[in-house]
Amino acid sequence: xxxxxxxxxxxxGVGIAARGLGQSVRSGRQxxxxxxxxxxxxEVVAIVGASGAGKTTLLEILAGVQQPTAGTVTYDGTAAAGxxxxxxxxxxxxxxxxxxxxxxxxxxxxxxxxxxxDEIGDRVAEVLAELRLTDRAATPVGLLSGGERKRASIxxxxxxxxxxxxxxxxxxxxxxxIxxxxxxxxxxxxxxxATIVLTTHQVTDVDHCDRVVVLTRxxxxxxxxxxxAAREFFGLRSLVEVHLRLDEATRPAEWPDRFAEQRDAEQPxxxxxxxxxxxxPPRRVGRLRQWAVxxxxxxxxxxxxxxxxxxxxxxxLMVLGxxxxxxxxxxxxxxxxxxxxxxxxxxxIAFGGFFxxxxxxxxxxxxxxxxxxxxxxxxxxxxxxxxxxxxxxxxLLALVDLALLGVLRGMDRLPPVGGTDFAALYATLxxxxxxxxxxxxLCSAAVSDAAQATLMLPMLCFxxxxxxxxxxxxxxxxxxxxxxxxxxxxxxxxxGLGHTAGVERLWRDGGSPLxxxxxxxxxxxxxxxxxxxxxxxxxFVLLFLGAAWAVLVRRDLRRAS
Length: 561
Ligand SMILES: Nc1ncnc2c1ncn2[C@@H]1O[C@H](COP(=O)(O)OP(=O)(O)OP(=O)(O)O)[C@@H](O)[C@H]1O
What we know:
This protein has helices spanning 3-6, 55-63, 99-110, 117-130, 146-158, 176-191, 227-234, 242-247, 254-266, 287-304, 306-326, 339-362, 369-377, 382-410, 419-446, 450-466, 479-486, 489-501, 503-509, 515-522, 530-554, and strands at 16-24, 30-39, 44-48, 70-75, 84-87, 164-167, 195-199, 211-215, 221-225. The protein is of the alpha/beta class. A 6-stranded mixed sheet has the order 5-6-7-3-8-9, with helices on both faces. Strands 2-1-4 form a 3-stranded antiparallel sheet, with helices on one face. The chain is elongated, with a radius of gyration of 30 Å. The structure holds adenosine-5'-triphosphate. Adenosine-5'-triphosphate (ATP) is lined by residues 25, 31, 49, 51-57. The site of adenosine-5'-triphosphate has 10 residues, from helix 2.
């Protein structure tokens, strides 16, 4: 790749103008009011204010992530923002992957599809150098220092060379020397043409900025201008005391009114009739490429996280060991079957497949919601995101389901079924695991964190035990229970396995006197052709995945929650 092809042209920087911005929340409370300010291309701007003053809200409005309830934002005089790099407060990138790998995946999700692997490699190297991270390229993100992780988070956005960078508290949690180093990096970015806006609690950060925007506790603009002008305006030698000065005001609007007066005297009022806020959505990489990149990244994360992989594969093997210890061989022996044991074996196999699928899916989304939210801003779509999860986890489930059936069959815990019937048992179990995986993803999409997801586990498992028809046959249930049993994916798996395993014939014609009465209690539970069970299980897969998608759309991941 030649330098001409890989070195991006210098950015022009983007001027931002906000006019009369206001933001109210559902309760009616106004968290920002009447904010008008102009930011010149290539400026480094700090937004300061007490906790809860509305700094993040203002930043998100400037980013187009939130729509204001009043006012407008324009970028270089137009409503189209172009590419904006939004760097959230938390270092939200996967911690398992080496930094350069993380950036490669981020680049493949953000840069145009036509960008080749060499060009992506060059771009990643360029960004690493620019953020002074070249020597950390092979270090897993989780092992980087706080300051390095912040720079890594900025590097993700720098890949697309945005004209505007908006950073939420980039210096929080950093020691002062590292914070200064980071601010220098931001200054260097601004010098190459990017406009930088950041929020900060460290008023000393302001000295490294061209402009400071001061908000009052009530979300009003107390000042915007150079740090020197701010010191003069507030009559302070250091802006460290600016919050005290604001709090000394006799009325909330005192400083905003004084500033408005001063500004009006110096310049004409800013016009408020610009175009509406409309950050242009970033040009998206196609769905297929997104799916391929996300799948590759998920697979690499699973493989690199050895402990997770060991748990994913090891826990089903432990369950398999328990089954082998629990069930004696020969329960399906036609001359002397144990009908009640056959029910339990089939039920627990079905439940095993369900449980593996559910637990595989349950933590997948809720543990990376902030990452997903960030990637949604970069144009990642939800359907490829969900399918990429399934693409990586389903083969693992296929492996453990095969081991479960193969070993139990080999140890004479299952009937000696031949190739086609074994394949049918396997298809039923795998579809059941897939439905449970989709259910797990749905629940993971609906909750906010891993603790909530874990609390849901009993709620999801109990009905799949009670209403399946194994512990109590469906015909023997109360009417409500019978209806509920239709909604249990595990019921269809259990009955499908029973059909293929030939329990009807075994109980009716086998050598156990317990068989016929048991068959009478179960009615025609096992007489349905197994493809009907497959259709229903396939329907559950689609239903749960569709619902997971809808839940994520509804959560409106483009907005901060
Ligand atoms: N969606 C929302 N619904 C209700 N209140 C909200 C919402 N978003 C923000 N707020 C409130 O608006 C105020 C401003 O929030 P914001 O996060 O912008 O402040 P901040 O200055 O960034 O605070 P901090 O410095 O503590 O991060 C806070 O009181 C916050 O609780």
